[in-house]
Amino acid sequence: MNNYYARTNMNPPNVVSFARGDVTGDRVPDNVYLTGIMTPDSPFIQNITLLVQDGRSGELTSVSLRENAGYNPTVFLGDFTGNGVDDIFISIATGGSGGIMYHYIYSFVDNTAQLLFDFNVYNEQYQYEVTYQDYYKVEVVSMINNKKYIIDISTKGTEYLNEIYDENGKLKSPITGFVNPLSGLYPVDFDLNKRYELLAYQKIAGRYNADSLGFVLNTLAWLDNRFVLQNQNVAILGY
Questions:
Q1: pLDDT tens-place string over residues 99-139
Q2: What would the DSSP string read from start to end of 92-111?
Q3: What is the C-alpha separation between 11 and 61, in angstroms, rounded?
Q4: pLDDT value of position 238
Q5: What span, in angstroms and rounded, lies between the C-alpha atoms of 103 and 121?
Q6: 98, 105 in Cβ contact below 8 A?
Q7: Fewest CB within a 10 Å sphere: which of 34, 160, 163, 200?
């Protein structure tokens, strides 16, 4: 790797995550790196870059990430498309209070990077409406599949409820909540066929971000050259 940076007149960044597996499809294990520029006295990492070293030729290929700064960048290799070749799953924490994450998945067959999953595209596609209802209920509507969920908030506490409802359980004024962008995306082989699905977490919030009401859990599977919604659940918090 040092020779590569010497040829390109670049200061060598640090390797911040590493995995090894066949991502090119030639059955020879390849080296997959995430590199980044460390921040002095901080865990914040900038210029996070995907670097793939072909196991057969030793050739290095660099892939720039659109969102390339954050915390604890990690790389995971697994087959998401079912072609028997590992894909490259990248996760970067933003460090924000909402626990928002950046996630990318790349195919690298024949040493060609193809973006299979972009968290920005997901966040644009998966939209929700969160509306407080009379009698201590919150309605969550998932727009992509037109599914509706009702969350019982009657256990939220007297002070909380009295700010929102009158003595008859009626809303004092209309209130809307929101669903955060991706706060976690996890590879899970649900049916144990050596092909990974994705489990996406998004927090449901009420009047403000810390007012957590639960999570939307979406399972995505690769179908017809894209990730599609397979299952959706809403998980609520116990009391």
A1: 899 999 999 999 999 999 999 999 999 999 999 999 999 99
A2: EE---TT--EEEEEEE-GGG
A3: 17
A4: 86
A5: 11
A6: no
A7: 163
